[in-house]
Write a structure and sequence with these properties.
With 494 residues, this protein is α+β, with helices and mostly antiparallel strands. The protein has three domains: 183 residues, Beta-Lactamase (2-Layer Sandwich), CATH 3.30.450; 97 residues, Signal transduction histidine kinase, dimerisation/phosphotransfer (DHp) domain (Helix Hairpins, Orthogonal Bundle), CATH 1.10.287; 154 residues, Histidine kinase-like ATPase, C-terminal domain (Heat Shock Protein 90). 56% of the residues lie in helices and 16% in strands. Strands 2-1-5-4-3 form a five-stranded antiparallel beta sheet, with helices on one face. A five-stranded mixed beta sheet has the order 7-9-10-12-11. A two-stranded antiparallel sheet has the order 6-8. β1 and β2 form a beta hairpin. Bound molecules: adenosine-5'-triphosphate and magnesium ion. The site of magnesium ion (MG) has 5 residues, from α7.
């Protein structure tokens, strides 16, 4: 996959570079073609001008003397003018010297008077003289014959006034495109060679560059492949934390850290859970073993053993039930079943239920009066939350003490407060009491024979219930005079 990214990057790079080079070459080619053609035209124009000037000069010089000569020689003026013109044309042709241009002079009727061919047998022939406008220079292209492979020819023509009697002369100068074609051909050939070489070099460079910049990615994917549940503490290499790849690696590492933490939590949960389950099981096992050691036991001995088994079974059932609740909560599979009820009623009823426990311990439970508070939430879960708090409070309050429950209403929240006059929770322990399986007084509570003592899941469950209702559960205060737990629930949970 990394490899194909490298190839793709290189190909893209080559494609773009190829397009740029092509556009550049085409531009250069077009510019050169234009300037070569312009140069050719300018050359033709200049030649035409100089020929025209010299012809005009010869003609005016000769014609000025024509009358005189006619008189002296006794010839007709037209005859002398004819001779003068011939002479002028002849000498102009003699004077004209160009290595690559042909020249021709035609009379007013289009008859060729004189011509001088350029090397390569180029003649300044004209297809039709009617084409040529009266004034100024006229330039056009004569297509070469493809069959004999001759180049196109550029021709410039111009009229020159002759004697007053005859129609004006026509001068034509021609030059082949051959030199231009050769120069352009050379340029094309150098493009054919240079562009592929440039592309090859760029492709090679691009490929190595892509490989170099993708190397950290390859290293990352190699390392990531080796990371599994067993070595989640390993991290991806971060080559440069400021670049995109470095940030990707850092983000991935953060994900690994979170995964690792949650795996640790799961492992801890498993370890704690099996530890908690082992105790009641071994108590039951011992009770059964001891009882069965003797072939015969009295009824009260059997009864005692069964009572022990019964208590431990109840304890087991409670722990398993609590674990199940938390496991489903973790998996998000314990949906709330909301219903409408009165919060004050729920508080009173739960406190009354807890009183059964309290009476046995000679602890009093008081509920402060509260106005009717209609509420929408999961009644069963909220009852369990309050019961867990009351259970803790009663269990940690010595005989003669008291537990109070109160309900208060604020703008957007209700607060249920459970306060006891118990032993309090030591400062260093307070931070942990909401953790799963955490018990500050583990040794003592496990030693309690009755099913009353739990596994340290009560507060974890209570907090989850509060949070599931978008609320909070916290220990507000705890010292030698007792502890105060406060659950706050928003008036209208989502
Ligand atoms: N009102 C309280 N007074 C003193 N200590 C408390 C009080 N509430 C909780 N604790 C301490 O916090 C610990 C955790 O309480 P939690 O309710 O989670 O577990 P538990 O009561 O031991 O077991 P479970 O609730 O599962 O039966 C308790 O073991 C106890 O040490
Ligand atoms: Mg508890």
């Amino acid at each position: 996959m990394v490899d194909s990214v490298r190839y793709r990057l290189t190909l893209w790079y080559l494609g773009v570079l190829g397009l740029v080079l092509l556009a550049f070459s085409a531009g250069v080619y077009a510019l050169l073609t234009r300037s070569l053609n312009q140069r050719l035209d300018n050359g033709l124009r200049a030649s035409l001008e100089s020929v025209a000037t010299s012809l005009t000069r010869e003609l005016t010089g000769g014609l000025a003397e024509a009358e005189e000569i006619a008189e002296v020689q006794g010839l007709r003026l037209a005859e002398v003018e004819g001779l003068v013109e011939k002479e002028a044309v002849h000498s102009t042709m003699e004077d004209f010297s160009s290595s690559n241009q042909a020249i021709a002079v035609f009379d007013g009727q289009g008859r060729l008077l004189a011509e001088k061919a350029a090397p390569g047998d180029l003649h300044a022939d004209l297809p039709s003289l009617d084409l040529v406008p009266v004034q100024s220079v006229y330039i056009f292209t004569l297509p070469g014959s493809r069959g004999s492979d001759t180049e196109d020819v550029r021709v410039a023509v111009r009229r020159i006034p002759a004697t007053t009697a005859s129609a004006p002369y026509l001068i034509a100068v021609a030059q082949s495109f051959e030199a231009n074609t050769k120069e352009l051909e050379l340029l094309r050939r150098s493009f054919y060679i240079a562009i592929p070489i440039a592309l090859a070099l760029a492709g090679l460079g691009g490929f190595f560059l892509a490989r170099k910049s993708l190397a950290p990615m390859a290293a990352m994917s190699e390392r990531a492949r080796r990371i599994s549940a067993e070595n989640l503490e390993e991290r991806l290499p971060v080559a440069n934390p400021r670049d995109a790849l470095g940030q990707l690696a850092a983000t991935f590492n953060e994900l690994l850290a979170r995964l690792n933490a949650s795996f640790d939590q799961q492992r801890q949960f498993m370890a704690d859970a099996s530890h908690e389950l082992r105790t009641p099981l071994s108590v039951m096992h011992t009770a059964a073993e001891v009882t069965l050691e003797q072939p015969r036991r009295t009824e009260s001995e059997y009864r005692e053993a069964l009572q022990m088994v019964d208590a431990q079974t109840r304890r087991l059932a409670r722990i398993v039930e609590d674990m199940f609740t938390l496991a489903r909560a973790d998996a998000g599979r314990r949906p709330l079943h909301p219903s409408n009820f009165y919060l004050d009623e729920l508080t009173r009823e739960t406190a009354r239920a807890a009183e059964v426990l309290a009476v046995r311990k000679r602890v009093s439970v008081e509920v402060s009066d509260a106005a009717e508070i209609p509420f929408r939430g999961d009644e069963g879960l909220l009852r369990q939350m309050l019961l867990n708090l009351l259970d803790n409070a009663i269990r940690h309050t010595p005989a003669g003490g008291h537990v109070s429950v109160s309900l208060a209403q604020f703008d957007s929240a209700y607060e249920i407060t459970v306060a006891d006059s118990g032993t309090g929770i030591p400062g260093e322990v307070q931070a942990h009491i909401f953790e799963r399986f955490y018990r500050a007084d583990a040794a003592r509570s496990r030693a309690e024979p009755a099913g009353g003592s739990g596994a340290g899941l009560g507060l974890a469950i209570a907090r989850w219930i509060a949070e599931a209702h978008d609320g909070r559960l916290e220990l507000r205060r705890s010292d030698e005079s007792g502890s105060v737990f406060v659950a706050s629930l928003p008036a209208s949970p989502r």
